[in-house]
Amino acid sequence: MLKYTVLSITKDLGFTKSVINPVVIESDSGVILFDAGYPNQLDDFKAAMKKSGYSLPDITMIVVSHHDHDHIGSLKAFVNENPKIKVVANEIEAKYISGEQKSVRLIQAEEYNKKLDGKEKVFGEQFVQYLKTIEPCNVSKTVKENEYICEGVKVIHTPGHTPGHISLLLERESVFLAGDALAVEKGKLVIANPQFTLDMEETRKSLEKIRNLEIETLICYHGNVFSGNIRNGIDEILNNK
């Protein structure tokens, strides 16, 4: 059986505070971290992992759900401090994580800013500059739908939020790590940041895929563990779209 631990880490963004929920998975082959937070959060991760009995040298692999700034922001810092860490991502996302190609999120933000003016445009341009500061990191291995990260940890391709977004299924435990395929807000399942979702039709297909999986526990990067009926929660989203 796998052991998994949900971390809870707060990032003060100035105008608001964001709580993220990366997950540590302990397997026979090593300790895996699912997603790597905002920039400059390495110390926050160390503190959160310490509370759960882990340290940075324990981490053997970081699996990245997608290339957004709040998921890869501290990725390079992790690898700089522990070069033995293998970085794993979907083959579509790898080119953005490594900086080989311009981030589709950055392209989206630049295009969106053309519609803004006044204070909104100033904020939008600041966000674009912020995205440009995200340090790229080489990906050690790329994965596709239904591949295994290790025994019992299956890759589920859940595009929509970004093209190569992946989630993880802990098969024996019936635990689904959604990344940003879903979020929990006020106890309800929702689409994570719909205004930034790149393909809503693909999101719908991904939600239908998740709904049809045998899942007992669903963990979202934003919102932590969903405590309601998973299929009913997804149906509510699909029926309101």
Which features does this protein show?
8 helices, 6-stranded mixed β-sheet, single chain, 31% helix, alpha/beta, 241 residues
Provide a brief overview of the structure.
By secondary structure, this protein is α/β, with parallel strands linked by helices. The chain has helices at residues 42-51, 69-72, 75-81, 91-97, 104-113, 118-132, 200-211, 230-239; strands at residues 3-6, 9-12, 17-20, 23-27, 30-34, 59-63, 86-90, 141-143, 148-150, 153-157, 166-170, 175-179, 183-185, 188-190, 217-220, 224-226.
What would you say this structure looks like, in words?
It is a single chain. It is built from eight helices and 16 strands. It has helices at 42-51, 69-72, 75-81, 91-97, 104-113, 118-132, 200-211, 230-239; strands at residues 3-6, 9-12, 17-20, 23-27, 30-34, 59-63, 86-90, 141-143, 148-150, 153-157, 166-170, 175-179, 183-185, 188-190, 217-220, 224-226. The strands form four sheets. Strands 1-4-5-6-7-8 form a six-stranded mixed β-sheet. Strands 9-10-11-12-15-16 form a six-stranded mixed β-sheet, with no helix packed on it.
